[in-house]
Amino acid sequence: MGKFVTINLFQVEHGDATPPLSDTLDEFEQLPIDQRWRSDIRLEKVERVSADSVLPKVYHLDFAKSRSVGPGRMSHAQAVVDVGLTREEMFGEETAALYLPSKKWLLVLHNQYGVGPSRMAQYFNALDPGSAERHFDYYAYAKIDTQALRKMQAMQHFSGVEIMANVGGFEGAKDAVGEPVVEAANAARAVRLHLRLMANKTHGQGRLLDTDAVRRFVSGLLRNHEEVDKIKVKSADANLDADDRVIDLIEHKIRVRYPDRMLAVTNHRYTYASKIALLRRACRGWLNFMD
């Protein structure tokens, strides 16, 4: 079986005082590359592409993440040796992405060692490209299949919620459920959590979970989706079929896989052009079949 690459779809939102992401991308496009560092990542390329017969206006993005320690080089007849970097150079992991302003969609070509959508949002939030005095408020949600979301939204009451995640999945939680969970985990020095919140049918008390609290909790987890393995919600409606009472939202994240042979390789690296072409293909497909 061949190897595959995955493109994931995210929804970008921002606070009232934060400009549209397209405005911030336009500013980054004007900055010299050495002024684009935010911690260990940099927006290597930002290209504004006008609408054509295939796609509306989009931005082609390429992020780089620095690595101080990396692999060596080898051949069939030679042991591993140094790559030969200078003292000023470092390894760089690349992650290609595409932003569609009209839908606020962010498409990311997954790279396990690269920059994920949460880091991308943090990158744009670090500071206004034109002023170190202003901070932004962008965040990227995992785009969930519409039918699964409608199914959850139709649930009037919840009888259970099950979460499996790294503690980082709860970071930034400001809801009544998430905050104490983070405090308890940090106190115990835990790094992973398997959390189950259950109503108590047997004794007639606490038969339902607080609907608003559950929705806020789930919304916060979806912001940190990269750290979350499971978000399973269970409806308290006994009239629903068993299959309709339970939804694992993480299983319904919108993504598409392509054979890695669809990416061109030059000098042992996937080319930027082929990565962008694949992102555009995925975007076109989702535009044709999604609301």
List key phrases describing it:
single chain; 291 residues; alpha+beta; 2 domains; eight-stranded antiparallel beta sheet; four-stranded antiparallel beta sheet; 7 helices; 16 strands
List low-pLDDT spans: none
Taken from the alpha-carbon principal axes, the silhouette is globular
- Euclidean distance between termini CA atoms: 33 Å
Q: How much strand content do the residues show? A: 25-35%
Main sheet? Answer: 8 strands, antiparallel
How many domain modules?
2
Order of helices and strands: EHEEEEEEEHEHEHEHEHEEEEH
Cα-atom Rg, whole angstroms?
Answer: 22 Å
- State the total count of DSSP E strands: 16
Number of helical stretches of at least 4 residues: 7
Structural category: alpha+beta
Quote the average pLDDT: 91
Classify the helix fraction into a percent range.
25-40%
Please describe what this structure looks like.
- It is a single chain.
- The protein has 291 residues and is of the alpha+beta class.
- The chain folds into two domains: 4-73 and 84-143 and 254-289, no CATH class; 146-252, no CATH class.
- It is built from seven helices and 16 strands.
- A hairpin with a 2-residue loop joins strand 15 (265-266) and strand 16.
How would you briefly describe this protein structure?
With 291 residues, this protein is of the alpha+beta class. Helix content is 25%, strand content 33%.
